[in-house]
Design brief:
alpha/beta, four-stranded mixed beta sheet, 11 helices, 31% helix
Length: 364
Protein backbone atom coordinates (compact mmCIF):
# COMPACT_ATOMS: atom_id res chain seq x y z
CA UNK A 1 0.00 0.00 0.00
CA UNK A 2 1.09 3.57 -0.65
CA UNK A 3 2.01 5.68 2.38
CA UNK A 4 2.52 9.41 1.70
CA UNK A 5 5.12 11.01 3.96
CA UNK A 6 5.24 14.81 4.10
CA UNK A 7 8.32 16.50 5.51
CA UNK A 8 7.17 19.72 7.18
CA UNK A 9 9.92 20.70 9.58
CA UNK A 10 11.58 23.54 7.67
CA UNK A 11 11.89 27.09 8.96
CA UNK A 12 11.61 29.07 5.71
CA UNK A 13 13.94 31.83 6.88
CA UNK A 14 14.19 33.39 3.41
CA UNK A 15 10.50 34.31 3.72
CA UNK A 16 11.05 36.45 6.82
CA UNK A 17 9.24 38.52 8.10
CA UNK A 18 6.13 36.56 7.03
CA UNK A 19 7.71 33.23 7.96
CA UNK A 20 8.29 32.91 11.71
CA UNK A 21 9.10 30.11 14.14
CA UNK A 22 5.41 29.62 14.93
CA UNK A 23 4.26 30.06 11.32
CA UNK A 24 7.01 28.94 8.92
CA UNK A 25 6.69 28.89 5.15
CA UNK A 26 4.71 25.65 4.96
CA UNK A 27 1.93 27.16 7.11
CA UNK A 28 1.60 30.30 4.97
CA UNK A 29 -0.64 31.04 1.99
CA UNK A 30 2.02 32.33 -0.39
CA UNK A 31 0.16 31.41 -3.58
CA UNK A 32 -3.57 30.99 -4.26
CA UNK A 33 -5.13 27.76 -3.02
CA UNK A 34 -4.45 27.75 0.70
CA UNK A 35 -1.41 27.13 2.84
CA UNK A 36 1.51 25.21 1.40
CA UNK A 37 1.01 22.15 3.61
CA UNK A 38 -2.76 22.07 2.99
CA UNK A 39 -2.16 22.10 -0.76
CA UNK A 40 0.41 19.30 -0.41
CA UNK A 41 -2.14 17.03 1.29
CA UNK A 42 -4.96 17.98 -1.06
CA UNK A 43 -2.99 17.11 -4.19
CA UNK A 44 -2.69 13.51 -2.99
CA UNK A 45 -6.35 13.04 -3.91
CA UNK A 46 -7.29 9.39 -3.61
CA UNK A 47 -3.74 8.05 -3.75
CA UNK A 48 -4.09 7.02 -0.11
CA UNK A 49 -6.67 7.42 2.67
CA UNK A 50 -5.98 9.97 5.45
CA UNK A 51 -5.01 7.32 7.97
CA UNK A 52 -2.06 6.28 5.78
CA UNK A 53 -0.68 9.83 5.49
CA UNK A 54 2.17 10.80 7.78
CA UNK A 55 3.41 14.33 8.43
CA UNK A 56 6.81 14.72 10.11
CA UNK A 57 7.40 18.18 11.55
CA UNK A 58 9.00 19.71 14.63
CA UNK A 59 7.31 19.46 18.01
CA UNK A 60 6.32 23.13 18.28
CA UNK A 61 4.30 22.97 15.04
CA UNK A 62 2.25 19.85 15.76
CA UNK A 63 -0.85 21.62 17.04
CA UNK A 64 -0.82 24.26 14.29
CA UNK A 65 -0.55 21.58 11.61
CA UNK A 66 -3.32 19.52 13.18
CA UNK A 67 -5.54 22.59 12.96
CA UNK A 68 -4.71 23.00 9.27
CA UNK A 69 -5.17 19.30 8.48
CA UNK A 70 -8.29 18.21 10.40
CA UNK A 71 -8.86 15.40 7.89
CA UNK A 72 -5.79 13.55 9.20
CA UNK A 73 -5.83 11.54 12.45
CA UNK A 74 -4.02 13.33 15.25
CA UNK A 75 -1.48 10.49 15.45
CA UNK A 76 -0.49 11.13 11.83
CA UNK A 77 1.24 14.39 12.80
CA UNK A 78 4.59 13.52 14.37
CA UNK A 79 6.71 16.20 16.02
CA UNK A 80 10.48 15.71 16.14
CA UNK A 81 12.00 16.91 19.42
CA UNK A 82 14.87 18.62 17.57
CA UNK A 83 16.06 19.27 14.04
CA UNK A 84 18.18 16.50 12.52
CA UNK A 85 17.70 16.96 8.73
CA UNK A 86 15.91 14.66 6.29
CA UNK A 87 17.62 11.25 6.68
CA UNK A 88 16.49 10.65 10.29
CA UNK A 89 13.06 12.01 9.40
CA UNK A 90 12.68 9.55 6.51
CA UNK A 91 14.16 6.65 8.44
CA UNK A 92 11.72 7.18 11.29
CA UNK A 93 8.80 7.41 8.87
CA UNK A 94 9.85 4.13 7.22
CA UNK A 95 9.92 2.37 10.59
CA UNK A 96 6.55 3.80 11.57
CA UNK A 97 4.81 2.60 8.41
CA UNK A 98 6.42 -0.87 8.40
CA UNK A 99 6.39 -1.74 12.11
CA UNK A 100 3.90 0.54 13.87
CA UNK A 101 1.37 0.66 11.02
CA UNK A 102 2.10 -3.01 10.29
CA UNK A 103 2.77 -2.81 6.55
CA UNK A 104 6.13 -4.49 5.87
CA UNK A 105 5.62 -4.14 2.10
CA UNK A 106 4.77 -0.42 2.31
CA UNK A 107 5.61 1.87 -0.60
CA UNK A 108 6.40 5.42 0.48
CA UNK A 109 6.05 8.63 -1.49
CA UNK A 110 8.17 11.22 0.32
CA UNK A 111 7.74 14.90 -0.43
CA UNK A 112 8.40 18.33 1.10
CA UNK A 113 5.44 20.37 2.37
CA UNK A 114 6.32 23.60 0.58
CA UNK A 115 6.31 22.92 -3.16
CA UNK A 116 3.91 24.20 -5.81
CA UNK A 117 2.75 21.41 -8.14
CA UNK A 118 0.05 21.45 -10.80
CA UNK A 119 -2.11 19.97 -12.12
CA UNK A 120 -2.98 17.55 -9.34
CA UNK A 121 -4.12 14.87 -11.79
CA UNK A 122 -0.72 14.80 -13.51
CA UNK A 123 1.02 14.50 -10.14
CA UNK A 124 -1.19 11.58 -9.12
CA UNK A 125 -0.60 9.85 -12.46
CA UNK A 126 3.16 10.19 -12.01
CA UNK A 127 3.04 8.68 -8.51
CA UNK A 128 0.99 5.72 -9.79
CA UNK A 129 3.55 5.18 -12.58
CA UNK A 130 6.31 5.12 -9.98
CA UNK A 131 4.34 2.54 -7.99
CA UNK A 132 4.06 0.30 -11.06
CA UNK A 133 7.77 0.66 -11.69
CA UNK A 134 8.55 -0.47 -8.15
CA UNK A 135 6.19 -3.43 -8.51
CA UNK A 136 8.43 -4.66 -11.34
CA UNK A 137 11.67 -3.50 -9.70
CA UNK A 138 11.18 -3.80 -5.91
CA UNK A 139 14.59 -2.44 -4.91
CA UNK A 140 14.48 0.59 -7.19
CA UNK A 141 14.44 4.15 -5.87
CA UNK A 142 12.34 6.47 -8.01
CA UNK A 143 12.62 10.24 -8.11
CA UNK A 144 11.13 12.92 -10.35
CA UNK A 145 13.14 15.33 -12.46
CA UNK A 146 11.86 18.69 -13.62
CA UNK A 147 12.85 19.66 -17.15
CA UNK A 148 14.72 22.95 -16.62
CA UNK A 149 13.39 26.09 -18.27
CA UNK A 150 16.41 28.23 -17.38
CA UNK A 151 19.87 27.69 -15.80
CA UNK A 152 18.75 27.95 -12.18
CA UNK A 153 21.37 28.23 -9.46
CA UNK A 154 18.85 27.69 -6.64
CA UNK A 155 18.00 24.05 -7.42
CA UNK A 156 19.96 20.82 -7.24
CA UNK A 157 20.23 18.77 -10.44
CA UNK A 158 19.87 15.13 -11.49
CA UNK A 159 22.17 13.82 -14.25
CA UNK A 160 20.23 11.27 -16.25
CA UNK A 161 21.77 8.20 -17.85
CA UNK A 162 20.33 5.69 -20.32
CA UNK A 163 16.57 5.33 -20.77
CA UNK A 164 14.70 2.56 -19.00
CA UNK A 165 13.66 -0.27 -21.28
CA UNK A 166 10.03 0.16 -22.30
CA UNK A 167 9.58 -3.58 -21.96
CA UNK A 168 10.36 -3.23 -18.25
CA UNK A 169 7.69 -0.67 -17.45
CA UNK A 170 5.21 0.22 -20.13
CA UNK A 171 4.21 3.89 -20.57
CA UNK A 172 7.42 5.22 -19.05
CA UNK A 173 9.25 6.45 -22.13
CA UNK A 174 10.62 9.44 -20.18
CA UNK A 175 12.22 7.32 -17.46
CA UNK A 176 16.00 7.12 -17.17
CA UNK A 177 18.65 5.58 -15.01
CA UNK A 178 20.32 8.17 -12.80
CA UNK A 179 24.02 8.85 -13.34
CA UNK A 180 24.36 11.17 -10.37
CA UNK A 181 23.01 13.97 -8.22
CA UNK A 182 24.55 17.44 -8.35
CA UNK A 183 24.45 20.18 -5.74
CA UNK A 184 23.25 23.71 -6.54
CA UNK A 185 25.65 24.92 -9.26
CA UNK A 186 27.14 28.29 -10.10
CA UNK A 187 25.76 30.18 -13.11
CA UNK A 188 28.27 28.81 -15.62
CA UNK A 189 27.78 25.21 -14.52
CA UNK A 190 24.00 25.56 -14.54
CA UNK A 191 24.17 26.86 -18.11
CA UNK A 192 26.22 23.81 -19.14
CA UNK A 193 23.73 21.50 -17.48
CA UNK A 194 20.78 23.00 -19.33
CA UNK A 195 22.62 23.15 -22.66
CA UNK A 196 23.54 19.46 -22.46
CA UNK A 197 19.91 18.36 -22.18
CA UNK A 198 21.00 15.61 -19.78
CA UNK A 199 20.02 17.25 -16.50
CA UNK A 200 16.82 17.78 -14.57
CA UNK A 201 16.05 19.95 -11.59
CA UNK A 202 15.84 17.76 -8.51
CA UNK A 203 12.24 17.83 -7.25
CA UNK A 204 13.09 16.26 -3.88
CA UNK A 205 10.19 13.80 -4.28
CA UNK A 206 10.94 10.08 -3.90
CA UNK A 207 9.03 6.82 -4.19
CA UNK A 208 10.48 3.58 -2.76
CA UNK A 209 9.66 0.58 -0.68
CA UNK A 210 10.12 1.38 3.00
CA UNK A 211 12.26 -1.74 3.31
CA UNK A 212 14.56 -0.47 0.54
CA UNK A 213 15.32 2.82 2.24
CA UNK A 214 15.78 1.10 5.60
CA UNK A 215 18.31 -1.28 4.04
CA UNK A 216 20.17 1.69 2.55
CA UNK A 217 20.24 3.52 5.89
CA UNK A 218 21.40 0.34 7.64
CA UNK A 219 24.32 0.10 5.22
CA UNK A 220 25.37 3.77 5.34
CA UNK A 221 24.11 4.99 8.73
CA UNK A 222 23.84 1.97 11.06
CA UNK A 223 24.18 4.01 14.26
CA UNK A 224 21.35 6.27 13.17
CA UNK A 225 19.13 3.32 12.36
CA UNK A 226 19.84 1.69 15.71
CA UNK A 227 18.59 4.79 17.53
CA UNK A 228 15.55 5.07 15.26
CA UNK A 229 14.71 1.43 15.97
CA UNK A 230 14.71 2.16 19.71
CA UNK A 231 12.26 5.00 19.06
CA UNK A 232 9.99 2.77 16.97
CA UNK A 233 10.21 0.02 19.60
CA UNK A 234 8.88 2.37 22.27
CA UNK A 235 6.16 3.86 20.05
CA UNK A 236 2.72 3.63 21.62
CA UNK A 237 4.09 2.89 25.10
CA UNK A 238 4.38 5.05 28.20
CA UNK A 239 8.07 5.56 27.35
CA UNK A 240 7.44 6.83 23.81
CA UNK A 241 8.23 10.52 24.38
CA UNK A 242 11.12 9.89 26.74
CA UNK A 243 12.83 7.52 24.29
CA UNK A 244 11.99 9.77 21.32
CA UNK A 245 13.54 12.81 23.00
CA UNK A 246 16.69 10.98 24.13
CA UNK A 247 17.48 8.89 21.06
CA UNK A 248 16.57 11.43 18.40
CA UNK A 249 18.72 14.13 20.02
CA UNK A 250 21.68 11.74 19.94
CA UNK A 251 21.47 11.29 16.15
CA UNK A 252 23.89 13.21 13.96
CA UNK A 253 21.85 15.21 11.45
CA UNK A 254 22.38 14.44 7.77
CA UNK A 255 20.33 14.86 4.61
CA UNK A 256 18.94 11.89 2.70
CA UNK A 257 20.97 13.03 -0.31
CA UNK A 258 24.29 12.67 1.53
CA UNK A 259 23.25 9.65 3.56
CA UNK A 260 21.76 7.55 0.75
CA UNK A 261 21.11 9.08 -2.65
CA UNK A 262 24.72 9.91 -3.55
CA UNK A 263 25.66 6.26 -2.96
CA UNK A 264 22.57 4.46 -4.28
CA UNK A 265 22.94 2.52 -7.52
CA UNK A 266 19.45 1.43 -8.51
CA UNK A 267 17.93 4.89 -8.95
CA UNK A 268 15.71 6.04 -11.81
CA UNK A 269 14.26 9.43 -12.64
CA UNK A 270 10.87 10.04 -14.23
CA UNK A 271 10.59 13.27 -16.21
CA UNK A 272 7.82 14.97 -14.29
CA UNK A 273 4.61 15.52 -16.29
CA UNK A 274 3.58 18.29 -13.88
CA UNK A 275 4.57 21.88 -13.22
CA UNK A 276 6.78 22.28 -10.17
CA UNK A 277 8.31 25.10 -8.16
CA UNK A 278 10.28 25.12 -4.94
CA UNK A 279 9.36 28.43 -3.34
CA UNK A 280 12.82 29.30 -2.11
CA UNK A 281 12.40 33.01 -1.46
CA UNK A 282 10.40 36.13 -2.17
CA UNK A 283 11.47 36.32 -5.80
CA UNK A 284 9.69 33.04 -6.47
CA UNK A 285 6.39 34.93 -6.11
CA UNK A 286 7.11 36.64 -9.41
CA UNK A 287 7.36 33.22 -11.09
CA UNK A 288 4.09 32.03 -9.58
CA UNK A 289 1.97 35.19 -9.54
CA UNK A 290 3.33 36.98 -12.59
CA UNK A 291 4.23 40.64 -13.05
CA UNK A 292 2.50 43.81 -14.22
CA UNK A 293 3.56 46.13 -17.03
CA UNK A 294 6.33 47.53 -14.82
CA UNK A 295 7.64 44.06 -13.96
CA UNK A 296 6.29 44.39 -10.41
CA UNK A 297 4.61 41.61 -8.40
CA UNK A 298 2.08 43.02 -5.96
CA UNK A 299 0.13 41.26 -3.19
CA UNK A 300 -2.09 43.62 -1.18
CA UNK A 301 -2.82 47.37 -1.35
CA UNK A 302 -0.07 49.28 -3.09
CA UNK A 303 0.64 52.49 -4.98
CA UNK A 304 3.84 52.53 -6.98
CA UNK A 305 5.34 55.56 -8.66
CA UNK A 306 8.44 55.12 -10.78
CA UNK A 307 8.70 51.60 -9.35
CA UNK A 308 9.97 48.70 -11.47
CA UNK A 309 11.02 45.10 -10.94
CA UNK A 310 9.80 45.16 -7.34
CA UNK A 311 7.94 42.63 -5.19
CA UNK A 312 5.51 44.04 -2.62
CA UNK A 313 3.56 41.92 -0.13
CA UNK A 314 1.23 43.57 2.33
CA UNK A 315 -2.39 43.24 3.48
CA UNK A 316 -5.50 44.77 1.98
CA UNK A 317 -5.90 47.05 5.00
CA UNK A 318 -2.33 48.37 5.07
CA UNK A 319 -1.23 50.56 2.17
CA UNK A 320 2.37 50.39 0.96
CA UNK A 321 3.55 53.25 -1.26
CA UNK A 322 6.81 52.97 -3.19
CA UNK A 323 8.53 55.80 -5.03
CA UNK A 324 11.57 55.41 -7.23
CA UNK A 325 12.29 51.80 -6.34
CA UNK A 326 13.96 49.36 -8.69
CA UNK A 327 14.52 45.63 -8.12
CA UNK A 328 13.45 45.65 -4.47
CA UNK A 329 11.52 43.44 -2.07
CA UNK A 330 9.07 45.08 0.34
CA UNK A 331 7.21 42.88 2.83
CA UNK A 332 4.95 44.34 5.52
CA UNK A 333 3.70 42.45 8.57
CA UNK A 334 2.07 43.86 11.73
CA UNK A 335 5.32 43.98 13.70
CA UNK A 336 8.13 43.99 11.13
CA UNK A 337 8.78 45.35 7.62
CA UNK A 338 11.46 44.20 5.20
CA UNK A 339 12.92 46.46 2.51
CA UNK A 340 15.66 44.73 0.55
CA UNK A 341 17.42 44.61 -2.79
CA UNK A 342 16.40 41.64 -4.92
CA UNK A 343 20.09 41.12 -5.63
CA UNK A 344 20.80 40.47 -1.95
CA UNK A 345 17.90 38.17 -1.11
CA UNK A 346 20.13 35.44 0.31
CA UNK A 347 21.14 37.84 3.09
CA UNK A 348 17.64 37.66 4.57
CA UNK A 349 18.94 34.64 6.46
CA UNK A 350 21.55 36.92 8.05
CA UNK A 351 18.72 39.10 9.36
CA UNK A 352 17.30 36.12 11.24
CA UNK A 353 20.70 35.40 12.80
CA UNK A 354 21.06 39.07 13.75
CA UNK A 355 17.69 39.02 15.47
CA UNK A 356 18.78 35.92 17.37
CA UNK A 357 22.05 37.54 18.46
CA UNK A 358 20.19 40.64 19.72
CA UNK A 359 17.64 38.57 21.58
CA UNK A 360 14.72 40.07 19.66
CA UNK A 361 12.89 36.75 19.69
CA UNK A 362 9.49 38.42 19.33
CA UNK A 363 10.36 38.97 15.66
CA UNK A 364 11.44 35.37 15.01
Amino acid sequence: MLHPVIMAGGSGTRFWPASRNATPKQLLSLVPGGTMIAQTVERLGDLAPPERCLVITNARLVEAIREQLPQLPAASIVGEPCKRDTAPCIGLAALLVTRVAGDPDAVMVVMPADHVIAPEEAFQTAIRQAERLIESNPHTIVTFGIKPTYPAEIFGYIHRDVPMSLSTVEELATTYRVKGFREKPDAATAAKYVESGEYYWNSGIFVWRASTILEAIAERQPTMLARLEKIAGAWGTDQQQEVFDREFAAIEGISIDYAVMEHAEDVVVIEAPFEWDDLGGWQSLARRLGTDDDDNTIVGRHIGLNTTGTIVRTSDDHLVVTLGLEDCIVVHTPDATLVASKHDEESIRKIVKELESRGWTEHL
